[in-house]
Design goal:
This protein has one domain: Rossmann fold (3-Layer(aba) Sandwich), CATH 3.40.50. 36% of the residues lie in helices and 27% in strands. It has helices at residues 43-50, 73-78, 96-102, 109-121, 123-127, 138-150, 168-181, 194-200, 218-222, 225-231; strands at 5-14, 17-27, 32-36, 55-63, 66-67, 81-84, 156-160, 187-190, 203-208, 211-217.
Length: 236
């Protein structure tokens, strides 16, 4: 089976700073892969590099066997990469409905069917469909950011810190939605909430100093306290 996404020795910069210095990973169809690491390890920068938002210094980025290295973000998105950044940016002056509409790549029957699925996944959005995004809670804004991507026909979805700043009860609801999404999506998740990462992920990659340093099945990491403390400072 070929990976949906393949990174090999990926290297990229933010300005003059060499942040990603050798990240390699594979994501296969139907998987949820979590990227873990301490703050500053290069997790968010890796996602932004995949999306064509940063200057690439070298390496490989392949989507379904085709290179997307060096493509601008809009072309990466058109090829089927969905991206939910950590700041869950939505348009406050538009309604939930309008936020969804402007994010559609195609306004066809299939897209509306996927939008309906996303609204079933997040009932709060269905209730707030005609409300302005400015009136939404932080959790609802995160749900909207995910739904905008979920309605499109993506080969893979990148989600950055979906639990950031959310109340525990909302984190639980978002986590349940992500687990359900695994039935129909291939995911990469960057997440600092270790229990959530373990609940959603199938496999993991740990980044340290901009490099991928460890990988395996999430169930193994959940039981390896020494590895957690070494790279993630869980419970330290």
């Amino acid at each position: 089976m070929k990976p949906v996404l393949k990174l090999e020795n990926l290297s990229s910069f933010i300005g003059a700073f060499h942040i990603v210095q050798g990240v390699s990973l594979d994501v296969f169809p139907g998987e949820a892969v979590v990227i873990l690491g301490r703050n500053g390890a290069g997790k968010t920068t890796t996602l932004r590099t995949i999306m064509g938002l940063l200057r690439v210094a070298g390496g490989v980025i392949e989507l379904a066997g085709e290179t997307i290295l060096g493509l601008p973000a809009h072309q990466v998105a058109r090829r089927g990469v969905g991206y939910v950044p950590e700041d869950c940016i939505v348009f406050n002056f538009l309604t939930v409905k309008e936020n969804l509409q402007i994010a559609m790549r195609k306004a066809d029957k299939e897209t509306y069917a996927r939008q309906s699925y996303a609204l079933d996944l997040f009932p709060d959005l269905k209730k707030a469909y005609s409300r302005y995004a400015a009136t939404l809670s932080g959790g609802q804004r995160q749900m909207l950011a995910i739904a905008r991507v979920l309605q499109n026909d993506n080969k893979i979805i990148l989600i950055d810190e979906p639990s950031k700043g959310l109340a525990p009860i909302i984190v639980e609801r978002v986590g349940e939605a992500l687990i359900t999404m695994k039935n129909s999506c291939t995911l990469i998740l960057v997440e600092q909430n270790f229990p959530l990462a373990c609940a959603v992920g199938d496999r993991y990659y740990i980044l340290n100093g901009g490099r991928s340093v460890h990988s395996g099945h999430v169930t193994e990491l959940a039981n390896d306290v020494q590895l957690q403390n070494r790279f993630l400072s869980i419970g330290a």
